[in-house]
Amino acid sequence: MIASIILVILLSHTIESSKFTIPEATINDIQAAFNQNKLTSKDLVEFYIQRIRKLNPIYRAVIEVNPDALHLAEIADQERKNKDPISRFGLHGIPVLVKDNIATKDKLNTTAGSYALLNSVVPRDAGVVNKLRESGAIILGKASMTEWAAFRSSLLPNGWNARTKQAVNPYVATLTPCGSSTGSAISVATNMVTVSLGTETYGSILCPSSANSVVGIKPTIGLTSRAGVIPISPRQDTVGPMCRTVADAVYVLDAIVGFDKNDAVATKKALKYIPKGGYLNHLKLGGLKGKRLGVMRAYHYFGFSNDTETLNMFEKHFNILRQNGAILVENLEIVNFDHIISMFSSQDIALSAESKLALNAYLKKLVTSPVRSLADVIAFNKKHVDLERIDDYPQDVFLAAQKTNGIGKLEKEALMNLTKASKYGFEKLMNDNKLDALVTPYFEGYSVLAIGGYPGINVPAGYDKNGGPYGICFGGLKGSEPTLIEIAYGFEQTTNFRKPPANKNHV
């Protein structure tokens, strides 16, 4: 313990003496420090490991640390010394935490926070992990999450799982950390890692990003591979970066997009959306100029909750957007709104059937596993009630899914309703008003983006009177990531709202 403390002091002294500190450092800052010989990847990994040891017992954001992380850092340092081609990549030597439902073929477990998958063996790295490794990134460990991505129980608190218990919001401990990618958000917010990966089926990137004051990108479905990710719905599942800045998130996005033979249909279809030269070219200071941004004040499902406090709080944000050249299109109307909303109610029917099929297929492909089906998972949880109180919460969502029997007439009708709701709701709204993005407070509108497979970016937008963070969300049509990045970066660079948690534990 004394050696660990000395190590942190020495690292801090060495780096601070040369006017560079690791906490809050961006990828560009770190790469500059690497190139100036002010920092090594080994230094960086050692710092984060000590940081995790200190803070993780408080916040429960990390479920496992990669025992090979230091060795991987040493390899990265040698590659940089040798000027290997891989060392020129932006993510080279950068530590990444990946959510615990994203497979890594190494000494780390992939469990979705559940004891049912502890010691199971995955056949290969997830597609996004493979791309991270090809970019030279270091897999630092697994981020904690809401167990089974919040699909086990309707009563499960955000951020709870059997293995690490309840994750804690680092800004205000009594506030929800929100969504299932809680560990991914908390870990970067508290500087326990440089960048992280989260997943979203229904708000689990956008929501924790808003609640923990980080940037989260929910990509268009298929832009990033889902192969090797413990699934809920191939129709809605996506993997995206969660970082402290828009630029860092874009570095990660550039690294993980593209074709994957193990998710061939979706990733091939989405190739047309990837811009030539990548996404970094869209980090433009004047990115807000001329953008048509839609604001909905009357439809909670698509945006505002219509309460006076929210309206007043976000009026200053709208003024910022206007002052920087954006054109706000307000008081938008949705034709046949009640009918469209009624079609969205088909979501639960679709997800129940899809989740059982997808999870069973995933479990059967594992090399070894204590469970091979959803039925096995349910039985495991019932049997091991004494395993760190694994049965503190019921399995009603799992049980509902288990009762389904594939995609029958009811499910096909539900899926058709969701397709129509997206086409005649969000898509019509965007196209009729020639919008570049829909702007919503917090992470509102996430449900519309999730159901239709559309992208969204959440950017820190400030803190309430109690210190609780909140974000602003920009959502667009499929493949609109370049435009959304320009908008998000323009807003971030103008405002710089984000600040690290003000907590004595972070010193």
From TrEMBL:
Keyword presence, Signal: yes
Residue ranges occupied by any Amidase domain in the UniProt entry: 43-442
Keyword Signal listed: yes
Protein name: Amidase signature domain-containing protein
InterPro entries recorded: Amidase_dom, AS_sf
Alphabetical keyword list: Signal
Signal peptide feature range: 1-17
PANTHER family in the cross-refs: AMIDASE, OS04G0183300 PROTEIN
One of the Pfam families matching this protein, by short name: Amidase
